[in-house]
């Protein structure tokens, strides 16, 4: 899948997080999971149509409604997003990428060591 298809808006990501958690849902079910103030049905339907065009979701007619299933997993999206960020913002440097988050989040040496242990499979 192209990177342009993986660039999701905040509204699209809100919907995708619901779909990733539920596995599949109708527009009404998606709205039911959203926080107040809930968007209009037509607003969410438009988002679903855009996601369908981007080939991120697959609609399937069931009775009078469409059930939407994600074609892109949360992990695939995160991988694409982080790879693109690493390549564009950090010029491909994993070290700079990782260092940025360690500094930004003000991780202690112990927290960094815990991350390294997790990466090395030493829990």
Spatial order of strands in the largest sheet: 1-2
What ranges have pLDDT less than 50 throughout 5 or more consecutive residues?
1-5
Question: CATH fold name of the largest domain, please?
Answer: Arc Repressor Mutant, subunit A
Rg over CA atoms, rounded to whole Å, is 18 Å
Q: How many separate domains make up the residues?
A: 2
What is the level-2 CATH architecture name of the largest domain? Orthogonal Bundle
Fourth-tier CATH superfamily name of the largest domain: Winged helix-like DNA-binding domain superfamily/Winged helix DNA-binding domain
Overall average residue pLDDT: 91
Distance between the termini: 34 Å
Helix content: 55-70%
Order of helices and strands: HHHHEEHHH
Oligomeric assembly = single chain
Question: Mind explaining what this structure looks like?
Answer:
The structure is a single chain. With 123 residues, the protein is mostly helical. It has two domains: 3-70, Arc Repressor Mutant, subunit A, CATH 1.10.10; 74-119, no CATH class. It is built from seven helices and two strands. A two-stranded antiparallel ribbon has the order 1-2. Helix 3 (27-33) crosses helix 4 (41-53). The longest helix is centred in the middle third of the chain and has 16 residues, at 74-89.
